[in-house]
TrEMBL record:
InterPro entries: Iontro_rcpt_C, Solute-binding_3/MltF_N
Protein name as catalogued: Basic amino acid ABC transporter substrate-binding protein
Segment forming the signal sequence: 1-20
Aminoacyl-tRNA synthetase listed as a keyword: no
Keywords, comma-separated and alphabetical: Signal
GO cellular component, one term: membrane
One MF annotation (Gene Ontology) recorded for this entry: ligand-gated monoatomic ion channel activity
Membrane recorded as keyword: no
PROSITE patterns: PROKAR_LIPOPROTEIN (PS51257)
Domain Solute-binding protein family 3/N-terminal: 37-260
Organism: Candidatus Caccousia stercoris
Length: 260
């Protein structure tokens, strides 16, 4: 019996060791510097914050992340994945940080830590040019398209019933453009998405769609890091503060949104 007990204890210890190793995905700054790479994940469907120009992912968040990588003395490695896969990528260690026009809301704070905000934004409502929808209150009996996992998705879904405005039905898309295409085809009544991507969609389809003057929500963008990685979070905040103080942050944003 004692022998069996010892074997059982050994096996339990081994399982616990492997389990702990598997769950340890947080990297120190030294780990990142030793690897020579800062792994940043984003969703390149969010112009002007991140989008594809030819085969390259560019945008505001890419340039900010590049500044963070430079401060660490490493190369920036950008991975383009689905928006709803971004937080899991952080949790699994596949990404060191996420910069994706992501709103620092309380629900996401349960899973990740956020930097200081670097941009004030809003959730805009896109409708067809001839739509009778005039404001958020008119969505109550409408079908609204959103990008899966975004703030617009969370707000329109309204699982806890706490939001000021409601919608009749939510349809989720992997890409904002897919929702806009369905809007123009008459399959949905409106699209809720972040303001600046909304403006870009309208610029590309000025005769077909428009953005309403009244936003659905106001929010702040921040950079996400793995939960509890205060060392990396402090470094990100340090770089953001430096960019803001020097005026470089305004220059980066102005490079992409100067006409807004």
């Amino acid at each position: 019996m004692k022998k069996l007990a010892k074997i059982a204890a050994f096996l339990l210890a081994a399982v616990m060791t492997v389990s702990a190793a598997g769950c340890s995905s947080t990297k120190t700054l030294a780990d990142i510097q030793k690897s020579g790479k800062l792994m940043m994940s984003t969703n390149a469907e969010f112009e002007p914050f991140e989008y594809k120009d030819g085969g390259e992912v560019v945008g505001i968040d890419i340039e900010i992340s590049q500044k963070i990588a430079e401060a660490l003395g490493v190369e920036l490695e950008v991975t383009d994945i689905a928006f709803d896969s971004l937080i899991p990528a952080l949790q699994s260690g596949k990404a060191d940080l996420v910069a994706a026009g992501m709103t620092a809301d309380e629900e996401r704070r349960k899973s990740v830590d956020f930097s200081d905000p670097y941009f004030n934004a809003s959730q805009a409502i896109i409708v067809t040019s001839d739509s009778e929808i005039a404001g958020p209150e008119d969505l109550a009996d409408k079908t609204v398209g959103v990008q899966l996992g975004t703030t617009g998705d969370q707000y329109c879904t309204n699982e806890k019933g706490e939001n000021e405005y409601t919608v009749a039905e939510v349809r989720r898309y992997n890409k904002g453009m897919e929702a806009v295409s369905d809007l123009m085809a008459g399959r949905i009544d409106a699209v809720v998405i972040d303001n600046f991507p909304a403006q870009k969609f309208v610029e590309n389809n000025p005769d077909a769609i428009k953005v309403l003057d009244t936003a659905l929500t106001e929010e702040e963008y921040a950079i996400a890091v793995p939960k509890g990685n205060t060392e990396l979070l402090d470094k990100v905040n340090e770089v953001l503060a430096s960019l803001e103080e020097s005026g470089e942050l305004d220059e980066i944003v102005g490079k992409y949104i100067a006409a807004e």
